[in-house]
Amino acid sequence: MTATLGAFVLGTPDPRALADFYRAMLGWQEAERSPEWVRLKPPDGERPGLSFQLESDHIAPTWPQRPGTQQMQAHLDLQVDDLEAETERACALGATLREHQPQKDVRVLSDPHGHPFCLFLPGA
């Protein structure tokens, strides 16, 4: 048997609200929804999904990392065609542009619950 990645899961104090943000960002469909768990799936259904799990004591990671703070252990990379337009759209949906930007063709943002994610251009 070969293992296959089925989904990436983000912990959050409000799974439904965070799923709504990513559903709007990605244009994905909701496959399951409860107060403690929401699962999104891509339209083609062939790529791994994205799920959101209730963590009432969630602490948002810092970016960039600093000793003694909650460390980022993973982040999402979202490929876009227009970096500036998609950065503006993400912010309009509730994301925050982070002050520290380590690369020219990548934008680091935080989703509404503080998880860092990156927007990047093809080839970046």
From TrEMBL:
Gene3D superfamilies cross-referenced by the UniProt entry: 2,3-Dihydroxybiphenyl 1,2-Dioxygenase, domain 1
InterPro entries: Glyas_Bleomycin-R_OHBP_Dase, Glyoxalase_6, VOC_core
Domain named VOC: residues: 4-122
Signal peptide limits: none
Record's protein name: VOC family protein
Classification lineage: Bacteria, Bacillati, Actinomycetota, Actinomycetes, Kitasatosporales
